[in-house]
Amino acid sequence: MKKSVTLLSGVLMASLLFTACSSGGADNSSSSVANGTTEASPTTALTSLFKAPDLTKLPATAQQRTDTIIMALTDPAGAFTPYFHQSGYDGNVSSLLYAPLVTTDDKGLPAPNLAESWDLSKDQLTYTFHLRKNLKFSDGSPLTADDVAFTWTILHDKSYDNDSLIPTLGIVGGADYKAGKASTISGIKVIDPQTISVTIAKPNATALLTLGSDVLSKAYYGKDYKFGELEYIKKLHQTPLGNGPYVLTKFIPGQEVRFTANENYFKGAPKTKNFIYKTSEGDTWQYVETGEIDFASFSATQENIDKLKSLGFVDILPYTPSTYSFLQANLEHEALKDKKVRQAIAYGLDRQSIYVDANQGAGEIANIPAAPISWAYTTDGINPYAYSAEKANQLLDEAGWVAGADGIREKDGQKLTLHYLGSKSPQTDIFIAVATENFKAIGVDFQPEVFADFNSLASKVEGGDYDLASFSTPMLTDPSDGLVQFLDGEIKGYDNPEFVKLYNEALATNDIEQRKKIYADIFKLLNDDLPVIFTNYKKVVYAYNGRIQDLTVSPFNGIASSVPQWNLK
Length: 569
What we know:
Blueprint: H1 14-17, E1 30-32, E2 38-40, H2 60-63, E3 68-72, H3 88-97, E4 102-104, E5 110-112, E6 115-120, E7 126-131, H4 145-154, H5 174-178, E8 188-192, E9 195-199, H6 207-211, H7 218-221, E10 246-252, E11 256-261, E12 274-278, H8 284-290, E13 295-299, H9 302-311, E14 314-319, E15 325-329, H10 334-337, H11 339-348, H12 351-356, E16 363-365, H13 389-398, E17 402-403, E18 409-411, E19 414-415, E20 417-423, H14 426-441, E21 445-451, H15 454-463, E22 468-472, H16 497-507, H17 512-529, E23 532-538, E24 540-545, E25 548-549, E26 567-568
Parallel strand pairs: 3-12, 20-21, 20-22
Antiparallel strand pairs: 1-2, 4-5, 6-7, 7-9, 8-9, 10-11, 11-12, 13-24, 14-24, 15-22, 15-23, 16-23, 17-18, 18-19, 25-26
Helix pairs in contact: 11-13, 16-17
């Protein structure tokens, strides 16, 4: 499934990032609930780490593990090669197997990783990366500038059809290579085994982090490469050769993904030798209570926090990720092509009740494609789409949808039906219950369909048999990250030249203040266009085995960067 929203880009956060629905908004000091009254939004009391008070309560199953940490994960598709993932859960797996050239610090700014430093030319077009010495892949083979050049090159192959942003940077000579007019990309120059430069056609504020992504082994992934033929890589997806903290040892679909420490990891082998993703279906609460898993994330409701505290053996860490959730609208369906209908859905859906009140304040309403943690976030000039059946009905009237004898609106002989897709979860249950009543009040025939696993939902969306589907983004570092899905027709049916113009303008400068102004205009445009229905931002808590030491969380990288340091005391 080619969807940027399902890719994690090295972020180890599946249960957090890909639940069916969540919560968000600029101001949750009060809430307009279903009956139109206003009441104070509940807030959670946990604002810092809560340490497990009694580790003697830790189940024997967890006590007996001395060199293994287990985490729950929705079943991945098995495409574990970076740049070729089929879902975000594949990205969760590869985030343990690969390390990028450049990472980000706690402020979302670039930080060294495989590349110990880099230079940018005065014209802001040429990036020169200086790799650390003695880098190795997990099999002990050397990682050099040739591997970086190979990685950037195959992403320009004419048969590449996934969603890496590297081909969009305009690397000089990239278009000629893709067209088969050149055997190499002229803008990529290997200077020596530890040094590589790349020249782009015009300045791009995200180029450093985009170019600084994962590195593929040329010897392994390029052995059978022929221009125009990338199908062979699929055969290597489940036997990846990486350079990250762990090595894949076993993948049993529907059961587990097993890893062991990479002795050749450039930062040294992880402190905990074995790591397991438990992918079998089951109750996460039960898994935590019985000690079958060591780490899980939950919505930050007071009920959840109190229940977790009562266990006695888990540390609890509050966290607000840099993500947003939304309802993807099928813009190829006639009714949803009309902006007034999409706006009516936004007005007619009581998002406050669904995502904030029902979650005891563990979320905020979202109205733009950026999280409140982002330096570009703003509410100035943004329509909050406060719940109003009256406003929704007015817009549907204006759009020509007239109520029929059964109360369902019709136009040109067609009923106004919304076929909704969601993943099985308590949040989806809440959404369906409230949405059913909300849509009935505005004459919409609401038809929900719930999937037990994400891959089935994604396949249904890919086939186009839906009207609305719930998704969340991966972690967003740069403001442009949350906009990619609106670009180049990735959301089929959305093509706004003004958006593309502003998007490119925002990337053409490294001036933060100038970029803020442009993103403010972009947010206003998308807040009015509603190519998706923005729903919420999440507030979650991590609950984990109190024996785990050195677990830290980054606002932009989540827990991914600290996993190699986790240690069972």
